[in-house]
Structures are given as structure tokens and as C-alpha cells.
Amino acid sequence: MVSAKSGCPGTGLGTATMAEGNEDEYEIKRMQWGRIRLSEEASKVTDHEDWIGDLLTVRREDVGLRIGTNNFQRKLYASVENMREHVAKMNKLKMDIMVGTEPGLGSRQNISLLKRTMRKSSFKAVTTSRDNRTIGGGIVFTMAEAWARVPHELTAYMPAEREHKGRAAALVFENNIPGMHHKVQIIAVHGLNGAEGKRDEAHRMLDWIDRERARFKETNPMATTVLIGDLNAAQNTALDTDKGMVREVETDEEEKDAFVLETIKDMHLTDVFRGRFPKLRAVTRTSSRGTNRLLDRVFVTGEAAGHPSTGVAISKHKWLDAGSDHLMVMLDLPIDTAGVALHRMPMWEPRKEKRWVRDIDDMG
Fold first, then answer.
1. How far apart are CA 207 and CA 213, in angstroms?
2. Residue 4: is its pLDDT beyond 50?
3. Angle in degrees, CA 121, 330, 335, rounded to 5
4. 62-90 core/surface letters (b: 16 or more CB in 10 A; e: else)
5. Which conformational region is residue 167 in: left (phi greater than 0), alpha (psi within -120 to 50 degrees), or beta?
6. Residues 290-334: pLDDT tens digits?
7. pLDDT at 358
8. Which pLDDT band holds residue 131 (cuts at 50, 70, 90)?
9. Helices vs strands, H then E, count in the chain
10. What residues have CB less than 8 Å from 46, skipping those under 6 apart?
11. What is the model's pLDDT at position 350?
12. Which of 87, 102, 245, 310 is most enclosed, with most CB atoms within 10 A?
């Protein structure tokens, strides 16, 4: 008996099979398709005047979401000038969303000032903070007008430990229009410093992230999830750090906090930069003191990771004139929940698959 099923590109799995509950197999195929597409990009030119990775100076017409992450090193809340410069930079690059870590003192006054400043430019800020008395921690989502208009809901990580509050947050956008671009989940993360010495605390935060991801996936199995931020973790010492400049490094040597990234990969998420450029040495922390590492990363679900419209790059320039010891990372995705893409691309392409199925009846 032969059956034809309509499903997702390259997954080798039809929607009927997914509906039967075989979600683990579905997710494996989803990631495999993404990795195949990523491997096709590995030979692309990676060094440009302003970018490391893809050339993202001009926004393509099929990009529905241009999102970035930057560790502000406590500079965003520091002045209105910095806030205005931040908006100007986003406008120049036609960015939709910026996920900012370490924005500065998250006092009520500073948060109110940021929100007012964003509104004057038709932007919106959504914030989470450790408390209103310390300059450490906190995450800020800043959104341009079109994405700010899309209904969204924030869920913040608020554990008992004060130091870890506000270090992760999930923002879900839903445009109330059924279809491939209906919803997207953005999980912002500011990982723990020295996670190898705080494994229990790190795993508690990672468990929360995985629960939020799984809860979203349960009701939106084909929707895109983006995990983005300063993860404070690296993997391969030779590729993700500058330690090779001061000592001999084995090609397979791993960082002590690599378990953080491995745990995220186990959530069926793909590191877009490393997937597209697996042999490119790069760092996002750029300080004259200590080791520089590739700490700021973006992970996405497989259909987005391997999509031909997806692009990712590390900026070669500081984001604010006030400075930071991190470089900005930017990602282009076809997901068009806000309806801003000039040429909307499908996230999934219909396909047919033929399978031979053994038919066993009473005659054997």
C-alpha cells in the first residue's frame, strides 16, 4: 500500500505523522533539515567591512524580522542621549527588535525614562530587572513601530535568588491571523557568569527556559522560537575564544561552561552562527583584559535555521559611542508576524512523500 502525505520541506515526515504524536521524530527531522541547509552556507564569504559572517548591511525584501542582541555594559539607562543613539542605530539598520542585556540601573525612574524616549520615536520598550536598586542584571526588549503594534506577552524568570532574577524572559508575539507567521517566541537570556561553578543554578534557569519553550511548542508545534542574548558561555576553545593567541590550543578543546550550550542544543534549537560558519573563529566579547569569547549567540528552531532567507552576523563596531566590551549580533529571519516583509516567504513548503507500508492481514 502506498500513501502520500503533505508535510514540511526536507523533514521526511508528514503532518499526519506529527498529529499521531511522534513529536520526537518530528523534531529530529526538523533539526536535520536545518543542519543540511546550514552546511550549504559554510563556504560563503565571511569577512566584510562591517560584519563577520553574512553581509547584512542591506535588509533583504524577504526578511520579516531583523533582531539583534547587545550587552550594553550598563550604558543604556545611563542617559537620554544613549537611548536616542540606540534608536537611531536601529533605524539605520532597519532593525525590528533589539534584546539588550545589562542595560544599567533598572530603577523605576530609568525604566520610565526609557519607555518615554522610545514612545517619542514610535518605539516600545519591554523590560525585566533584578530589582530597582542595582546596576547589574536586567533585560530590555526595544521594538520598532510595526512589531510594537503586534500583541505580545512577557514571562520573566524570577527565582528566589536575587542575583538571578530577570536574567531570562520569554516574549511571545501573536498577530491573530492564522497561518505560518501567526506567532513567534523570543527567549532572551543573560547567562550566569562562571556557570561551571554554579551548575545547579545554571540548570535551574535552563530548565525554566526549556519549560517555556516546550509550553509554547505544545500549542504551536510549527511556530518559530528564537533564543538570543549574552549566554556567558562558549564551546570550542580554538574557535570561540582568543586563547590560541597566548597558548597552544587543541582543536577539540572545550570551555568549562560548554554544557550551557549543549543543554540548549538538546532543546531542539540550532546555533545559527556556528551552523552557518562552523570553522570561523569569532568572539563577541572584545576587552583588553581577560579572555575574549563568543558569548552573544542566537539559537532558533530548525525551519528558521536552515531557511534561505536567514542570515546572521557579528558587527565589527561598537553599538553606542559610550562603548561596551561586547559586539552586537544581528539575525535576519523570514518570520513575518508584523507584516513588514516586502516579499513574504513561506516558513514551510508543502511536499509529498511516498512510503511503502507493509500490509499484514489475516493471510499474513
1. 10
2. no
3. 80
4. bbbbbbbbbbbbbbbbbeeebbebbbebb
5. alpha
6. 899 999 999 999 999 999 999 999 999 999 999 999 999 999 999
7. 67
8. confident
9. 10, 15
10. 52, 53, 54, 277, 280
11. 61
12. 310
Q: Which residues are registered as beta bridge partners of 189?
A: 168, 229
Can you read off the three cell numbers belonging to residue 313?
552576523
Q: Would you say residue 44 has pLDDT above 70?
A: no
Q: What angle do CA 286, 271, 206 make, to 5 degrees?
A: 90
- Closest by CA to 209, choosing from 192, 177, 187, is 187
User: Dihedral of CA 94/95/96/102: which sign?
Assistant: negative
Is-contact 243 251, C-beta < 8 A? Answer: no
Residue with cell 534549537: 269
Q: What φ, ψ does residue 341 adopt, rounded to 5°?
A: -65, 135
C-alpha cell of 213?
A: 519553550
Percent helix, strand, coil in the chain, to 5, is: 30, 25, 45
The CA distance from 298 to 71, in Å, is 13
Which pLDDT band holds residue 32 (cuts at 50, 70, 90)?
A: low
Residue spans of alpha helices (H) in the chain:
15-19, 23-40, 80-92, 108-120, 145-149, 199-219, 237-240, 258-265, 272-276, 302-305
Alpha carbons 333 and 17: distance in angstroms, whole number: 27
What does the alpha-carbon distance between residue 98 and residue 142 come to, in Å, rounded to a whole number?
5
| Residue keyed to cell 508575539 | 173
pLDDT of the residue at 360: 62
Whose grid coordinates read 517555556? 212
Terminal-to-terminal C-alpha distance of the chain: 14
- C-alpha to C-alpha distances, 150 to 141, 177, 224, 246, 327, nearest whole angstrom: 14, 11, 16, 49, 28
The DSSP symbol for 78 reads G
Cell reading at 206: 535552563
CA angle 175, 180, 183 (to 5 degrees): 35
Cell of 283: 568572539
